[in-house]
Amino acid sequence: MADRVCLVTGVGPGTGAALARRFARGGYRVAMLARDSTRLGVLEHEISGAIGFVCDVADAEALGETLSAVRGRLGPPHVVVHNAVGGAFGDFQTIDPGVLRHNFEVNTMALLMLARAVAPDMIAAGAGAILCTGNTSAHRGAASFAGFAPTKAAQRILAQSIARSLGPRGVHVAYVTIDAVIDLAWTRQLHADKPDDFFIRPDDIAEECWHVAHQPRSAWSFDVEIRPFGERW
Fold it and tell me: Is 82 helix (H, G, I), strand (E, B) or coil?
């Protein structure tokens, strides 16, 4: 896999960084996309074979330029994980409509642009994988998630449409729903009364994404749901 490339959007300190580490450990060269240049610089030093690209995926022009830069420097991606997320709290009467619009750009439109950019090379190769990391909001709209859930639901349905188009041409598309609280410093503070097994670990999310990206062709998944063993659902 020395010549294989994995592109990950939304590389933060949790899931994004874990994904970069897992695919780098598996022999991929990893293109890490994020807005924070400092964080990307730290991760570049920590992860052998990973290169940071500063990019706001909500900016379609910037995203297109970044994808061209990744292809020019590393080659066409064999695996893409759209992990960038735009979120907000508030019900339909209180949210800023502009926030909903921005979250749609991050969660849904960026997926469209990513898929359109990488699909031609994957189709030509007859192989490749495009994954989205989602959450419970992709399946139901809680009252306080009016500025977020609609965009994740749209993202999941778009991913399904892309899967139905690309699957017969050898490209695997899957949606990984994370039905849990991810183990991060701020979530630990927010849920300080919760035991360790309440949280889902970023490394375990990354391991499942690795598995889905490498499923045999005779047994591809689309909807994948992961949660801690104690999670009520």
Answer: strand
pLDDT averaged over every residue in the chain: 96
Residue 66 CA to residue 63 CA, distance in Å, equals 5
- Do residues 85 and 107 lie in contact, with contact meaning Cβ atoms separated by under 8 Å? yes
Query: Two tokens at 85?
Result: 């997320």
Closest by Cα among 83, 106, 222, 212 to 166 = 222
Report DSSP state, residue 231. Answer: -
Helix 15-25 vs helix 202-213: crossing angle, to nearest 10: 50
- Provide the token pair at 115: 């898929």
**Chain center to CA of 99:** 20
Q: Are 102 and 57 in contact (CB under 8 A)?
A: no
Separation between Cα atoms, residue 32 and residue 78, nearest integer Å: 14
| Assigned token pair, 196 | 């360790």
Q: Which of the four CATH numbers 3.30.530.20, 3.10.450.50, 3.40.50.720, 1.10.8.60 does domain 5-226 have?
A: 3.40.50.720
pLDDT tens digits for 177-206? 999 999 988 899 989 999 999 999 999 999
Average pLDDT over residues 96-101: 95
Residue 1 has pLDDT above 50, yes or no: no
* Dihedral Cα 59, 61, 65, 68, nearest 10 deg: 100
Helices (H), the chain: 15-25, 37-46, 60-74, 97-104, 110-125, 149-166, 185-190, 202-213
Partners of 79 in beta bridges: 6, 129
Give the pLDDT confidence score for residue 3 in this predicted structure: 83
Q: What is the pLDDT of residue 174?
A: 98
